[in-house]
Amino acid sequence: MAIPQSDEFNILMNKRPNLQQCADPQTECIACPIRKMALFRGVPEEELGWTQEFRDAQYLLPARETLYREGDIAHSIYTLFDGWVILFKILDNGKRQILRFVLPGDFFGFQVNGTGAGAGYTHGAQALVGSTLCVFPRTRLRSMMEKQPQLAIGLAEMGMHDMTLCQHHLIGTGRKNARESIAFLLLELFYRVRMQMQNGFDEATDSIIFPLTQEDIGDAIGLTSVHVNRVLKEMEREELIRCQRKRLTILGEETLMEIGQFDPGMIAPKELV
Amino acid sequence: MAIPQSDEFNILMNKRPNLQQCADPQTECIACPIRKMALFRGVPEEELGWTQEFRDAQYLLPARETLYREGDIAHSIYTLFDGWVILFKILDNGKRQILRFVLPGDFFGFQVNGTGAGAGYTHGAQALVGSTLCVFPRTRLRSMMEKQPQLAIGLAEMGMHDMTLCQHHLIGTGRKNARESIAFLLLELFYRVRMQMQNGFDEATDSIIFPLTQEDIGDAIGLTSVHVNRVLKEMEREELIRCQRKRLTILGEETLMEIGQFDPGMIAPKELV
DNA sequence: CGTAAATTTGAGGTGCATCAATTAAAGTGG
DNA sequence: CCACTTTAATTGATGCACCTCAAATTTACG
Q: pTM for this structure?
């Protein structure tokens, strides 16, 4: 049975032929398991029909696929429902800087250059694993926020959280050595995945699905994959971590936290007052 | 004549004995020359009496003085009215990472750890030059936003802008060499100061007041002051900049923009749609 | 005008990059 | 399920951008 397709979807498909519309039934906002962590966290239950109407649909993005490139016209903004997405920027010299690791519940795609409908994304976005996205039309965001202040507050709060993470990455690249900032990154991602308790965390082995390559790690904290490898190997020899076959286990949590100067409270979700 | 002092002020003075209340008359929000760049950008004129009531007062913070330290209970949030403020974090090893340069119109002090009235700042704040601050009670922010959605939207927009700057700093420390990221930083600050056309920009010489020490520059982009000095000296020899006596002149704008991969559009104020 | 703070310059060391080649793992079509 | 191909991980040798330490000089400031 054919699924009816919106204009948004057609625009999207035009640019990204690999994006697939989900089969019915799609997750309703009212039944969304990650809602309390996501954009609509502050919206009361009785209003959720309205958020549902704002949302365009859910889409599947296969692993390694690009969602958008820097400069693409920003038709849509996204909440990641399931999977892993990276936001990044490519420099003139060809080097890549990963700006953010997007995990389920995170909102992204709202950072643009320019104004109005023709504004372009400031960065690129790519899936690390097969991912499910909730897609919203960007041009309606402002009017939606004016109607529903909770949405704006939620956005400001999530922005604050993202900002904190970004600042910690800045500290990592600016003022920590390779060992310290790798320890921090591994712990940060481990805690963020474990916090949501649904997406690849295995309680039995205290491990998570970890789809980053060593090159991804390097591009996040400003190192070459060669040097990342040396540090990771050393940490494995010291029995601080196990990082194999796309799975990460933290063995020496205490020690790693000291090395990376990591404290879970630093990356806890933020609230405005 | 004694100025009546609010509870907020007393709390503030208790912790920061060097903060001085401005003499009357203080700038009214309705007459504020930087309002359109600041937190209340979206608030219609007829509502400004209300923003005025939200604001506690304006205060003076002398040069080099600390406004708050990391971990201090966050009673207040701030808009910088005039001056330069840096937000920073000190690591265990004593190194300092500057997270943000706050210029007039910028909003800060809302990033906290924890919830409720006892939450603490995630970072420290310090004035580089004598600065004037608009102070707001943090605990009323949420209710204010619920009453006035434009405030939440403004906050989200400013957050987006700050995030973009932070990401560019991340790119600088992570994926650029000393020369490139110094060029970027100088241009960024130069453009941001010139954009507001009021605060130390001298049209005749195309120069700005530039209160950073070479150590400040280094702590912003992850270099030692020694190495910053060598790069700056080289740039002066090449007649790309003049950076003396707390004043910065850009001589080779084109070349510098190429070196730093800087484009003014990247740091233009952001709007949601 | 004296003292502290910031800048400047030199010499020597190191953490990470670069280049290069091998091995292991993951993906793909038959 | 296996051969084939591609991608990622691993290891070694060498180099350089930036750090560290240290001392001289200039500038800011009470």
A: 0.92
**Residue of A170, A173, A228 to mutate for B, most B C-beta atoms under 10 A:** A170
Contacts of B150 in chain A (CB under 8 A): 146
Distance from residue B222's CA to nucleotide C16's C1', rounded to whole Å: 15
Q: Report CA torsion sign: B269, A164, B258, A110.
A: negative
Domains of chain A: residue spans and CATH: 5-144 (2.60.120.10), 157-267 (1.10.10.10)
From A212-226, B18-32, B116-130, the region with the lowest mean pLDDT: B18-32
- Side by side, which strands form the sheet with B131-137? B20-21, B57-61, B131-137, B76-82, B107-108
Kindly identify which residue of chain A lies nearest to residue B217, measuring between CA atoms. Answer: A174
pLDDT at position B198 is 66
Q: Å from B190 (CA) to C1 (C1')?
A: 36
Determine whether the interchain pair A261/B92 forms a contact, defined as Cβ–Cβ distance below 8 Å. Answer: yes
Question: What value does the mean pLDDT take over residues B73-78?
Answer: 93
pLDDT at B238: 97
Distance D25 C1' – A255 CA (angstroms): 45
Q: Does A71 touch chain B (CB under 8 A)?
A: no
pLDDT digits (tens, 9 = 90+) for A62-73: 999 999 999 999
The answer to whether the CB of A193 falls within 8 A of the CB of A128 is no
CA atoms within 13 A on the CB side of B210: 27
With vertex at residue B22, the alpha carbon angle to CA B19 and CA B26, rounded to the nearest 5 degrees, is: 145
Q: What is the rounded distance in angstroms from the CA atom of residue A226 to the CA atom of residue B182?
A: 27
The average confidence (pLDDT) of chain A is 87
Given a contact cutoff of 8 angstroms between Cβ atoms, the answer to whether A221 and A159 are in contact is: no
B177 touches chain A (CB under 8 A): no
The gap between the terminal CA atoms of chain B, to the nearest Å, is: 49
Is the pLDDT score of B236 beyond 70? yes
pLDDT tens-digit map of A11-63: 555 555 567 766 555 777 888 888 877 788 888 888 887 777 777 778 889 99
- Strand-pairing partners, residue B89, are B97
